[in-house]
Design goal:
The chain has 952 residues and is an alpha+beta fold. The protein contains 16 helices and 41 strands.
């Protein structure tokens, strides 16, 4: 018995030791396989920060855990994370790990995963990361390359606390599923098995075409089905899906053959009460749903039957019937009652165009006001055949009596609709209006809306939209928001083709207003960011490019008596605005502002996603200079002296630039040119003038009066380049040219002709010093009645540096004189240099020869050291290899486990020998590097000593 217990203890000890040691032995190999599989399979960046391998977690199988696993896209999606998984557990079959050829995965568990699926407008998807197949090769090669390091033999799949977002720009679909829990159980290794799935989503949102069809809905799905895995046939047994309070049961089968999916499914409601259906309406379900009083019956059933593939869709049908229904919130006085709905949606299969929608009855009363809707729609894809009618009145003041909206202070007014549409869209496209009936109107009267969320009261005095087959006639629109009023009338064409075919919507509207304050109309965050009174650069609100729609062709003839934007107040604004082909064009837009007027032509366009550019022509007349500088950021950047100037200017300018994400000009892309004219202006105390005054010792330059100016300028490479122009400062003739960069660096040359009588004693002293310095360099200046002065103004806008000089010719400065003196000195040195060159060459040649000898000797010594190190390294590896072969041979004699252990020890031995050998070589490299570095320094010193000797 003692012997048995001893053997049992030894066996247990071996198992424990194996459980501890085997993960360490196989860990590196498995991780290498994981990375290899990822790199071979996908063209994306896959990474994980940590991993672990355990035999005890899922004994007798290995459990591999990957932490912080991320999948990041490439190309257009290089900044998008396709998946971020906090933890992923894979259960690996122990025997398959020992064999090492193909790892069998029996269980997968995923926790805290976030998956972001994105489809661009060009239908390119971010999950399309599978590497393309290589060129055709032999069958054996293909099979070898295609084989995976991992084989899925799943018995369990668990997902916890996860989130999936699907954003499809090509279809206008957005889906967000948050709080996902999913469990799949069953033996997928057998030909026939029973599977059980239980899925739960805490918050499910579905948005299509900008409309929320489900918003934060709770979804549960329990499905039991038999799976014929050999023939890919799945038969549903007892199944139930729950969406909010609506319970659906379904049964049938799904069979997959090649690229076809054969569907035969039926479904219906488990509870036939109206309240279950009402829970699908987001606004109702999110507001005290449990306490709502309801009446009425619900009948809902449907089917899906047929083949689904890339070229065909199955037949399907949905029937909904609601009778004698109502709902009422317990604390409110009035119900929505007399609710009745008869709706059928069928498709006989083949394609989407075979879909027919028939809403034969949809009626409800809102606080006694009836609303009726009918709709029949056929061939929605090829040629929509529509027969629809909407008739009813909604009294907004009664909305608070049927639905709890405490946050609204004031809501009143009427919507009155009576609209009928009957015919095929092709009749509209052919302008065959006799075969298409579209008539009726939508009238809005005395609507008042006020809420704490919006500080300004919204008032629509009246609005009327009349319907005809060819166009919508906006008879009137008269509104006010806060202090801003807005009126419009005109026609909108091709509205049906726009709705059903996504064709271009065309319109011609006349708009006018006595006063529009755009700051008042913006959200408070935006307004504060613009004005600088509230939000800052750190604000949570981020501006972004405003995209111009592709399928809009509008002409707006506008007239605004007063228009306020940011800190700009404009009056008598008139002109034409055209919106077409992702571009807003301004044509002859005139306005009075800044004590003058401006005519603007040009465009704002968004040719690509997240890209915007402007191309404007300005004709400005008699703007106030100081007010303009405080108003326009571009003027503050490039002409900061304008903030200290009194006077007016006129300007004709062409300006083209890309805009950044905050809708501000990207100065590095700005191009343009123009002409700038001023009246007589007074400049008082600018930074540059103070520096000029200090350099010349002339106080009168602190406050100057400049006669009329006329100059030209250009924007090139992020700089405002001012072409040299003449002007007059009192009795002083002046000429100025240079540039200011968008980084606010400056470089200007100011030329002055100053009458001697204008100079004071301090200025004369500065001037005499300049003349004396110039004459020492070989010049022969004398001062006359007119003094030519040059001032170089450099540095930055906030810290200009002024360097004065004198000239006897235009353009000469004290720097020019210094250059002349230097040239004379070079001539005198030339002869001496010629004599010394021969001796210098001799010294350098001797030094180079000595340096080469030192480097050669060092290289020979280094080569000897490296050769010896390599010999020692090879010897160590050979010895290790022999010992490894011996260990494997001995292990093989003792059985399978001993052979595996010996093999691992041998591998470690060889690996350690490789490291030791590498250490010998690296140490030799360090020694040779030191020898060569010392030799190079010695050689460089010899050369430098020779050069120093030549200089002396």
């Amino acid at each position: 018995m003692k012997k048995f217990l001893k053997i049992l203890a030894i066996i247990i000890l071996i198992i424990v030791l194996l459980g501890i040691s085997l993960p360490f032995i196989f860990q590196k190999k498995i991780i290498e396989k994981v990375k290899q599989e990822a790199n071979n399979s996908v063209k994306a960046k896959i990474d994980f920060t940590d991993y672990s391998l355990s035999l005890f977690r899922n004994f007798p199988n290995f459990s591999l855990e990957l932490n912080d696993l991320s999948v990041v896209g490439v190309d257009e999606f290089k900044n998008d994370t396709l998946a971020q998984i906090n933890s992923m557990f894979l259960s690996l079959d122990l025997a398959s790990v020992f064999s090492g050829d193909e790892y069998e995965v029996s269980s997968i568990k995923i926790e805290d995963a976030k998956v972001y699926l994105k489809v661009l407008k060009n239908e390119k998807a971010n999950w399309d990361i599978e590497k393309p197949e290589t060129a055709a090769v032999s069958e054996d090669e293909t099979a070898s390359e295609a084989s995976s390091s991992f084989k899925l033999l799943l018995k369990e799949l668990i997902i916890k606390h996860s989130e999936i977002i699907y954003d499809d720009e090509s279809l206008g679909v957005y889906v967000k599923a948050k709080g996902i829990t999913h469990q799949l159980n069953g033996n997928l290794t057998e030909d026939f098995t029973s599977l059980y799935t239980n899925s739960k989503i805490d918050q499910f949102t579905l948005k299509y075409g900008g409309i929320n069809y489900l918003n934060n809905s709770a979804i549960n799905l329990m499905a039991n089905f038999d799976a014929d895995l050999k023939n890919s046939i799945y038969t549903f047994k007892k199944n139930q899906a729950q969406i909010n309070d609506l319970f659906l049961s379904f049964d049938g089968s799904v069979a997959m053959t090649n690229d076809d999916i054969n569907l035969l499914l039926t479904f219906g409601v488990s509870k036939n009460n109206f309240k279950s259906f009402l829970s699908l309406i987001p606004a109702i379900y999110s507001k005290d749903f449990a306490s709502i009083e309801t009446e009425g019956n619900l009948a809902l059933d449907g089917y899906v039957k047929g083949i689904y593939n890339d070229n065909s869709m199955p037949a399907f049908g949905v029937n909904i019937e609601i009778k004698d229904a109502m709902f009422k919130y317990p604390d409110l006085p009035k119900p929505v009652d007399k609710i009745a709905l008869n709706a059928k949606i069928i498709n006989r299969g083949g394609n989407y165009d075979n879909t027919e929608i028939d809403i034969s009855k949809f009626h409800f009363d809102i606080a006694g006001n009836p609303v009726d809707i009918k709709l029949k729609l056929k061939t929605p894809e090829s040629d929509p055949d529509i027969d629809g009618h909407v008739k009813g009145t909604i009294d907004l003041s009664s909305v608070k009596e049927i639905y709890p909206i405490e946050e609204i202070d004031k809501l009143s007014g009427f919507f009155i609709a009576d609209i009928h549409v009957d015919g095929k869209l092709s009749s509209i496209e052919k302008e065959d209006y006799e075969n298409f009936n579209s008539y009726g109107s939508l009238v809005v009267k005395s609507v008042i809306y006020n809420t704490p969320e919006v500080s300004k009261t919204i008032l629509i005095r009246n609005a009327q939209l009349n319907f005809s087959p060819a166009y919508l006639d906006l008879v009137s629109f008269n509104s006010r928001i806060g202090k801003s009023d807005f009126k419009a009338h005109g026609k909108i064409n091709d509205y049906l083709a726009y709705i059903f075919k996504n064709k271009t919507l065309k319109g011609n509207l006349n708009t006018n207003s006595l006063n529009v304050d755009l700051n008042e109309l913006m959200a408070e965050e935006i307004s504060d960011t613009i004005s600088g009174t509230g939000a800052s650069a750190e604000s949570d609100y981020e501006l972004s490019i405003i995209e111009v729609p592709q399928n809009i062709d509008f002409v707006l003839n506008s007239e605004f008596k007063k228009l306020i934007y940011d800190n700009i107040s404009m009056t008598n604004v008139t002109g034409k605005i055209e919106i077409k082909n992702k571009k807003v064009s301004l044509k002859n837009l005139k306005m009075d502002l800044l004590e003058g007027n401006m005519t603007l032509n040009g465009s704002y366009s968004t040719p690509k996603n997240d890209e915007a550019e402007i191309d404007f022509n300005f004709n400005i007349k008699e703007f106030n200079i100081k007010k303009s500088a405080k108003t326009f950021l571009t003027m503050q950047k490039f002409v900061p002296i304008a903030e200290r100037a009194q006077g007016k200017f006129s300007c004709k300018m062409k300006l083209k630039s890309k805009l950044d994400k905050q809708m501000m000009p990207d100065y590095s892309t700005m191009t343009g040119s123009g002409n700038f004219k001023t009246s007589k202006i007074v400049v008082d105390g600018s930074n540059s003038l103070n520096k000029i005054s200090e350099a010349l010792k002339m106080d009168k330059f602190k406050n100057i009066t400049i006669d009329k100016t006329d100059l030209s300028f250009e924007f090139i490479d992020g700089k405002l380049i001012v072409k040299p122009f003449d002007f007059k400062i009192n009795k002083i003739q002046a000429n100025l040219g240079g540039w200011t960069s968008f980084e606010q660096n400056i470089d200007y040359l100011l030329k002055l002709k100053i009458p001697r009588q204008e100079l004071g004693s301090k200025a004369n002293s500065v001037l005499n010093n300049l003349v004396s310095e110039a004459n020492k360099k070989g010049a022969n200046f004398s001062l006359g009645d007119m003094i030519d002065m040059n001032l170089k103004i450099r540095g930055t806008v906030t810290n200009p540096k002024v360097t004065p000089g004198i000239s006897d010719q235009p353009g000469n400065t004290i720097e020019d004189l210094k250059k002349k003196a230097a040239e004379e000195l070079k001539k005198k040195k030339k002869e001496l240099e010629k004599l010394a060159k021969k001796e210098a060459d001799k010294i350098l040649k001797q030094a180079n020869r000595q340096a080469d000898e030192i480097l050669k000797a060092a290289q020979e010594q280094s080569d000897k050291i490296m050769k010896e190190a390599q010999r020692t390294a090879n010897k160590a590896k050979t010895e290790a290899s022999k010992q490894a072969d011996k260990l494997k041979a001995e292990g093989k004699k003792k059985g399978f486990i001993a052979e595996v252990a010996a093999k691992k020890v041998a591998e470690k031995l060889v690996e350690q020998a490789e490291k030791t050998a590498e250490g010998f070589v690296n140490e030799a490299k360090k020694q040779t590097n030191k020898i060569m570095e010392k030799a190079r320094k010695k050689a460089d010193k010899i050369k430098q000593d020779a050069k120093n000797k030549i200089k002396k």
